[in-house]
Input
Amino acid sequence: MIEMKNVYKKYQNGVVAANGIDVEIKQGEFVYVVGPSGAGKSTFIKMMYREERPSSGDIIVNGVNLATLKNKRVPLLRRQLGVVFQDFKLLPKLNVYENIAFALEVIEESPKVIRKRVTDVLELVGLKHKARMFPNELSGGEQQRVAIARSIVNNPKVVIADEPTGNLDPETSWEIMNIFEEINNRGTTIVMATHNKEIVNTVRHRVIAIEGGLIMRDELGGDYGYES
Ligand code: ADP
Ligand code: ADP
Output
């Protein structure tokens, strides 16, 4: 499903953010990626959706090697992955419905299919009643729900999230976490970088701890393992 083999990443400034990463993530897993700031978590995650390319090594996602994937094929890859960010990245001039429908319009789905799928994901994240609102009219938690709905509207096999609760208060973070749980329960793989110790230690899943560009720990049902 997702496999990294001896992945090494050196940025142009000389920083080594991945220093020989080997990992395998199977379909349906829920994986937390933890570690101190600057450890290489974002780099690890960005390489999975080809936002960054490794300097060497192989990254295979859904059978495709991203290390050698041609740039023109990247949009095709992205359609098979959902990506959720800490800062939501919604389009401010589109309303909730349009932000989610956009992903389907670019692949020219029929209006009927679009309506059905957008309505279904809005229902899943509990925002059907806010379909006509704009991002700046929503709370942070609601904006993240929209971003999650957008990430799954294509029915991706994998959802990758980079600190999705990083800008949210504890209660809202739990609501967002519950949505990821629901998505995972439907069979979607979740890879989530997080600093949320309480969530990691309460809802147990596989924990991959990265430090200095290396996987220092990889445990099923592991704990967060850092002070904060
Ligand atoms: P984390 O997500 O764990 O905080 P990152 O993957 O963002 O870690 O960063 C790992 C290291 O790579 C850090 O030293 C960071 O400063 C560096 N880094 C990240 N992105 C870039 C970049 N685009 N150019 C140069 N260095 C970078
Ligand atoms: P939360 O407690 O989830 O952070 P808020 O207190 O930010 O929520 O918002 C509560 C409700 O008020 C939400 O349903 C949100 O949609 C609405 N709301 C917040 N800010 C605005 C705004 N600027 N314009 C319109 N509605 C807003």
Q: What stands out?
A: The pocket of adenosine-5'-diphosphate (ligand 2) is lined by residues 137-142, 172 (CB under 6 Å).
